[in-house]
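I have been asked to look over a protein record a colleague put together. Thanks in advance; the entry in question is below.
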Amino acid sequence: MAQIVVVGEILVEMMATATGQGFRAPGLFAGPYPSGAPAIFADQAARMGVPTALIACAGDDDFGRCVIGRLQENGAETGHIRLVPDVATGVAFVCYRNDGGRDFIFHMGNSAAGRLTPEDIAPAAFAGCRVLHIMGSSLFAPEMADVMRRAVALADAAGALVSFDPNVRPELLRRPGNAGLIADLMARADILLPSEADLAFLYPGLTPEDATTLLLQGRAGCVFLKRGAAGSRYAGRSGAFDIPPFAVDEVDPTGAGDCAGATFVAGLLHGLPPREAALRANAAGALAVTKRGPMEGNSTPAELEAMLVRGH
């Protein structure tokens, strides 16, 4: 039985091979790389030794099998992933700008990921569940709102906590109803895993510290704020503290926040104090950026231990 249930999308990424390459002229792309923020999270949580299941839809194609195979290889439960015939697995194309930023083109709306329905969220998946994890990036189709509401209701019935990463995409916020749903999920979550960019979108004009204070006035018991190369900040009922980053040579930041969030939640479920869970999350995020590809930098407990021994 899974202690963490993750609900969301599966996709593969095709990644530009040269920095400065754009989408308006021919260029070389490498892939497919297993991806999807919920899939990255589930993969890393399973690697941390917490039984984790992903509920999703994938195409009955080699792209879908690419992601499912990676999840199975690393111990995640895939029995709740439904293969959809005659519909392709979603694909994202990513290019890397010279200024360090990234540009994406997503082919998701008509992909198998968009075929996930409330009926796919089975009560049996929540037997033994301690944490439901969901992400704002999954709200790419109108039907996903009902999917997430059902998942939260089943988590409530199971007595599980809800972990939410807003993972804000500006284009998704423009979809009718999404901004309100994200606000509802922020208010409902017990564990919040935003980035500084998320808070800037959701609470314009507030500093990250003030936004975090506001969030803790609701249901959330803790906020793990991802700050990229600056490390992270933990805030809870008993206080707040910063966790410094680990110095590494960045190759690709894709998926690092999902990896860090999964490590933090897994650490809490293992009974680690928040400071130790956050430190391990920082180490996992640092390792993630040293490999090219969304899941390629996901880590094992032994790799995290080595990073902790090495220090900052």
About this structure: The first strand starts at residue 4 and ends at 7.
